[in-house]
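Course assignment 3, question 2. Fill in each field.
Student: A.L.
Task: Predict the tertiary structure for the chain below.
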Amino acid sequence: MMIRADPPKPGANCPVVLAVDDDKAALEWIATVLKKYEVLTTTNGADALDVVRSRRVDCVLLDLLMPGIDGLQVLSQIKAVDPDLDVILASGVVQPQAISTAMKRGAFEYLVKPFAKEDLLGLVAEAVGRRRANVATLLLIGADAGVIASIAVILEPHMTVATAVPRLDALPDPGRHAPSVVVYDAGLATPSAANLVERLRERYSRSKILMLIDPDIGRPTHPNITVIAKPYQLHDVLQHITTLAPGLSGLSVHSSRLGAPLLRLMDFVAKSYRKPVRAQDLARAVGCSVHHLGHIAHERLGISLMEYLTRFRLEVARHLLTATRLTIDQVAGEAGFSSASHLSRAFLAHSGYRPGDYRRRVRIAGMWPPQTMRPPER
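Answer field:
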């Protein structure tokens, strides 16, 4: 049975949310909470699949336990019909195995009933925003955490960024996401680097690949592979990414405004993030006053000098949590934090996760970052 709740006014380009639950009272509550959306409700999986096949839907809220076709089966079939449609799973019972399976099959997130309306509104808004913006996904692969963080800290506000070390067994699951661009910091010319490029091309066959290589490494000739020879400027890498990933005009404008002082700042931080660093050290390395450099950072990055340093270290930590088996204490030290508790507080404030929780989520999601990463409000 299909019910349309609170239909939008004619002509309104209103996002469409499909709620699927055998509890009609739960559906009525969801429709009331999501009153700014066009909400379609159904009590069974078969009807839900008919809706997804027949019309545009921007987000699905799906109950895990239903008679007939259960939530996991419906999730798999929705993803087969529309791989980019985000599905939020809901369950009244915590079932770790089922949740793990759902995340591997492409669920956007899960909610445990009874959930707060703020949690529902936040996740639906994020899912709809991703659907409407068609957010690009980028995969950064490299052994140097400083290089990874230099790129990731600029890209994170503009796209979903996953990171990995250059090992086949450590690469994110291509069945969960197809990254728009894969950036591989190949380093020295070795047979293993050339072999990994071929494996990347096979594994992420629909993705564009950008290689950062030493000048003497053999250059691949495949049309989906772009090469930048070292030494390179960060600005050049960012411009190539905006060319390869459609819809990143904002990043293109952003990277073109970095300028020499910020590029020197980023280079210094990439080499010094493990050490205790003050704003005066950053300014001295760049060759200008703290006030002037702080003004440039705020104007062009939207954050303070020390906030840039913190976010850089957080990207290093995120990479190490994803790609290594280091303890939280070891990750904190490698990323330049004074202690594990310091890292934990900063990581929670930036992402909404404790470091250990983040690492578990990444592994559940096939080595892709959780979809609810959120930067702090400015």
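Instructor remarks: DSSP finds 16 helices and eleven strands in the chain. The longest helix spans residues 305-323.
Grade: pending
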